[in-house]
Amino acid sequence: MAGIAILGAGIFATEEHLPALVANHADLKVVYSRSKATASLLHEEARKTYPEIALYSEDTPGSTLDDLLKRNDISAVIIVLPIPIQPDIIRRCLSAGKHVLAEKPLAKDVSSGRALIEECRKTYAPKGLIFSIAEQFRYMEPFAIGRKWIVDERAVGRLTQLHLRVWRNIKPGGKYIETAWRKVPEYQGGFILDGGVHHVALIRYVSGEEIVETKSFARQVVPHLPPVDTINTAILLSGGGTGTVSFSFASARQGMEALFIGEKGSLAITESKSGSVLKLELLDGTRKEETVKDNGVVNEIRAFLEAVRVGKAEAKAGPEQAMNDLAFVESICQEGVKTGVKVENW
Question: Among 67, 141, 149, 152, which is least packed by CB within 10 angstroms?
Fold first, then answer.
């Protein structure tokens, strides 16, 4: 079984990645963070299941990241670090011969992401190293059902419209906004990139289509969510359909709806306390409704561990998919371009 290290000891690593590793009976050996103080909470939590787990940090002589990467019993790392620094850490881990699962997004911008993929394909993939991106929405059962209906069964026929609405209210004092690197983001889009990229993955995965062009209006509505917290955009799909995407992390309304409309009917995916609700309505009178609750992080960790075991990752976990999620976000952050923006997909 692969020896695993978690790089990063923040909220998501502690609340999501650690329980997912435990659920998958992973061989977690090391917790790493920039400082011993920031790693302590995750380390103590991890010791409940892994009593021998080691703590590495840059302020612990002999237990830095360089030291960790020299360990032969660590074959894979899960990287859960701030967006701007992840690409360099990914490179360091791959160059040390470690398989990598890195949290989304792929990078802070398209040029950085493209350079990372090209380097990986040229230098690390030929060595058999796995490089996957942790986008749990591609591993959630309700969205897999939606994709089956739309792509595999073509239940609604050819897509003519796709509409996504995501409303959140990120208030000062919340656990995520008070993270220093999110509070003053050194990357485009703020929460639009950090949080909205999940829903971009959702609509691309369920529809099976690429978003090829956008035209957007972007605003910062509240002062604590720079540089932008609300975007409304028109989209053009690779299959010729059109639609809209609306994101706001400064909304008085909470909710999410993804609507896929085709020539034969429609599929609506919404949120509820019981899980994701899927409603399929066809012109011939067919009706289907399912409510499914699932943990995508547990599923994506399982898929990564299996990829390391067999030496091949699933395409949906590939950085190319994450690249196209990122490319869409970058395109909609270019507010004010009158002729629309071509999405720089991989």
Answer: 152
Distance of CA 129 to the CA centre of its chain: 20
Please enumerate in sequence order all residues whose Cβ is within 8 A of that of 25, keeping only pairs 6 or more positions apart, or say none: none
Does an H or E element contain 320, and which?
A: helix 319-332
Q: Which of 126, 134, 35 is nearest to 76 (CA)?
A: 134
Q: 280 is written with which tokens?
A: 């399929």
What is the token pair recorded at 209?
């289509």
The type of residue at 199 is: H
The phi, psi pair for 225, rounded to 5°, reads: -125, 65
101 pLDDT band, cuts 50/70/90, is very high
- CB neighbour list of residue 185: distance below 8 Å, 6 or more residues apart: 83, 194, 226, 227
Predicted local confidence at residue 1, as pLDDT: 81
pLDDT at 14: 96
Nearest-angstrom CA–CA distance, 16 and 5: 15
- Quickly tell me which residue has 């990122």 as its tokens: 326
Q: Give the E-state strand segments of the chain in sequence order.
A: 3-7, 27-33, 54-57, 76-79, 99-103, 131-134, 159-169, 211-219, 230-237, 242-248, 250-262, 265-272, 275-282, 287-292, 341-342
Give me the sign of the Cα torsion angle 111, 166, 317, 175.
positive
Assessment of whether the complete model's pTM goes beyond 0.90: yes
Name, in order, each residue with C-beta under 8 angstroms of 16's C-beta and a sequence gap of 6 or more.
Answer: 297
Nearest to 211 by CA among 324, 322, 108: 324
Determine if the peptide bond prior to 84 is cis (ω within 30°): no
